[in-house]
Amino acid sequence: MLYAQLAGAVSLREIEAGMSSHANRLYHVHATAPKRATLAEANSNRPVEIFADLLAVMIQRSHRKLRQSMDCVTYLIDSTGLALNALSSGWAQFSAKVCGAKLHVVYDPDANSPVYASVTPENVNDITAAKAMPIEAGASYVFDLGYYDFGWWATLDAAGCRIVTRFKTNTRLDVVEERSVPARSNVLSDRTGYLPKRMAAARRNPMSDLVREVRVRIDTGKILRLFTNDLEASAQQIADLYKRRWQIELFFRWIKQTLKIRHFFGTSENAVRIQIAVALIAFVLLRLAHDANTIVKSPLRFAQLIRQNLMHRRPIRELLDPPDRSKPDERQAGFGFLALSRRQRRRPAQLAITYAI
After folding, report:
1. CB 282 within 8 A of CB 1
2. For residues 126 and 206, what is the distance between their CA atoms, to the nearest angstrom?
3. DSSP states of 102-142 as a string?
4. What is the DSSP pairing of strand 162-166 with strand 223-228?
5. What's the rounded Cα separation, in Å, for the pair 40 and 45?
6. pTM for this entry
7. 279 with 344: CB under 8 angstroms?
8. The CATH number of the domain where 81 resides is what?
9. Range of the domain at 108
10. In angstroms, how far is CA 177 from the centroid of its own chain?
11. What's the pLDDT tens digit per position in 5-14?
12. What are the residues facing 104 on neighbouring strands?
């Protein structure tokens, strides 16, 4: 499955054909090319928790390495839809003619890496998935209107988190103070006040502390009402924080286009969840390898280089150099980016990225 993501395969038959064509390299790691039926059965029956737990461990270990500092952490929260065909209607039916799933992600824009991911059917609300996400005390969380829930905001606020999101147009703010704003800037107003004391069905609003509204004009001319519980930062800093939310959209586009999670090898819930987990594992591996090598600056160009040299055993830092003909033939050298040396085969837990980095 990892080979499929890194090689850009879009079907089980393509995986089978691609790995069979490199059987001599598979031999050096004591492996054989899998059959399509074997892959299909494993997708249906192998517990997805194996892959999800591995992804969680990799994210946890790689996050600090990629960030290097955990001060002033900012997390972006969003989800993206994944279209499925009618064969997935048993678990992912959204409407009469539409089936789909959602990938919910907490993303660190400074590390350019996800820190949490979950998969749900398309009809699960974003805020429902968000309430199951872990909260890091003191961090800044930026999200859009899909996470509009005063109770959840109050939970983040109680944990000492900074919140930056948007107001709905019909949400009233009882203004207490009008603050000055820089002249000739995109910030139109900066006000503090209180949210309505009561919610629907006469329930008390748990978000009862003093909050802040910053109105900004974006490049398209549209005016946004931004909400934050940070009363100290400048209005421009709040506007810039919300603008960073675009980075998670770029992340979703990257994994869909580069790792091909728009094409699924199976239709069952288990198969879809496995493929998404493996795609994110591949992303983390690529991030670690790209961070450790400076041959190209573009992550997309780096992923393309890995794809072209996936089955060739060459140091990553030399992928742009002509091959050295004085070295042993590649057929005797082994299995490229996914290779294991004899010493590594005695320590199977280190797996592919050991050689890559």
Report:
1. no
2. 20
3. EEEEEEETTTTEEEEEEEEETTS-HHHHHTTS---TT-EEE
4. antiparallel
5. 9
6. 0.84
7. no
8. 3.90.350.10
9. 49-254
10. 39
11. 998 888 899 9
12. 79, 118
